[in-house]
Amino acid sequence: MKMRISDEKLKEEWVDGIYNMSPAASPKHNQILNELTILIGNYLKGKKCKMFRENIDLILADPRELSVMRLKEAEKETKVRPDLLVFCQNVYTISGNNIVGIPDFFFEVLSPGSMKWDMVVKKEKYLSAGVQEYWIIDPLNDEVLVFCNGTEITYSFDDTVKVQSLNDFEINFPEVMSEIVF
To answer: What's the total number of domains in the chain?
Structure first.
């Protein structure tokens, strides 16, 4: 019998049955996530959208199509923890400590310890699951990679980027980065 002592500073995820554990986020990663959480949270006030933030398990599936048995299987196959996710139009449900659904918009802020996992494994899983808008925020290269409706566009931290799934909302990255101390 294998025993694993859980360390809350480690991020544990599964994609197609492959287990990954990555170290805690860097201070820069955390600051970017905090700034974006505030901006997006303020924008969403009064709207019929729900935002969830890091350390929440997401099972990428349409909850209307999952039986209880299939949900238990899905939990073992793919459980990811995006840095921030938003549901507006898409259906989701909460099952135990998991959110089951395909977010309208979500992103990952890259850290050196999770780069390959986020850029390759999770990106492919997200896109194959039918995610409409997924961002990878790369503080090492000062870039934002936006995957939206089958297209991929790279922006710099000098750009203002429109969140397509949130209609009229834009993120001014020069303003966001001016708040980051590193």
So the answer is: 1
